[in-house]
Amino acid sequence: MDFLIDIEMKLNTFPLQVRLDSAEMNPGGVIGLLGASGSGKTMTLRCVAGTAVPDRGRIVINGMTFFDSDRKINLRPQLRRVGYLFQNYALFPNMTVRQNIRCGILGAAQQERRIEAGKKQLDQENGRDTPRKKYRKCALYTSNQQREKGISEIIERMHLEGLEDRRPSELSGGQQQRCALARILVGNPQIVLLDEPFSALDEYLRDELLEETMSVLSERHIPVFFVTHSRQEARAACTDLAIIHNGTVQETGKAGDIFRHPRTAWGRILTGTEGRKDLDFQSLIK
Ligand SMILES: Nc1ncnc2c1ncn2[C@@H]1O[C@H](COP(=O)(O)OP(=O)(O)OP(=O)(O)O)[C@@H](O)[C@H]1O
């Protein structure tokens, strides 16, 4: 897992100044961002996804530069191969489960083709005569048959069998979230961003879906940034934690270590340790 998020951005309230470097953190698979409401967690994820643009800094994920203000690089969101799952599942309401998931593949395949076309254009501009076969063909499901097989596999893995022809309005909240996750995973993202994806679900379903989601993601070795307001979720799912307060990272470390021995005041407040259990956590965290 290889990432650098080192960004600055002026917000309404305070400046966002986030630095998360895998070389310093040596993280496992799931990095939790824990912070009070309005502390800048979502904005950080949006900068990674490319739907918000930092004023300065760099974002490099798995060797690919998404953003670099010095080098004037700002990769379009469609080219970043980021799977972004949030609370409102953003499924297409007029499409069935299968059609929604198919969109995930088609979108990702289109991204791959754009990346290769971009490389080709750059080579031409630089007068390089690169043989055609050097450009990668779209690796994602090259035939329709293969594509439908990929969709069926993910439908089975996410327990959506029998629901393929239903529209989102005919699904429960949990099923909609499973469908949204299937749509992301079928596109083979290089990083997954989870922004409180289960907070609208009841407690039982939340635990079940959390476990399932983490198991699917760890099978595929996809790095995950996970914004949650729940200590329980952070404990259950995260290998590593970043404590964020007013747009600044207060401390990072292994989740277990931070829950046992938080080093900063906000670490103590947000993990509810060391005599600060009296603080009303819910008033601090949405
Ligand atoms: N487009 C924007 N421009 C400037 N400031 C913004 C913008 N969007 C949000 N903000 C501000 O940035 C701050 C951080 O917001 P953000 O949504 O990242 O918080 P959060 O930690 O995810 O909170 P929550 O848990 O409530 O979702 C807030 O104070 C918000 O008002």
TrEMBL record:
Citing just one GO molecular function, the answer is: ATP binding
What keywords tag this UniProt record? ATP-binding, Nucleotide-binding, Transport
Organism in which the protein naturally occurs: Porcincola intestinalis
Q: What is this protein called?
A: ATP-binding cassette domain-containing protein
Alphabetized Pfam families for the sequence: ABC_tran
PANTHER family xrefs: SPERMIDINE/PUTRESCINE IMPORT ATP-BINDING PROTEIN POTA, SPERMIDINE_PUTRESCINE IMPORT ATP-BINDING PROTEIN POTA
Organism's domain of life? Bacteria
What residues does the ABC transporter domain cover? 2-271
Q: Does the keyword ATP-binding apply?
A: yes
- The keyword ATP-binding is annotated on this UniProt entry: yes
User: Could you list the residue ranges forming a coiled coil in this record?
Assistant: none
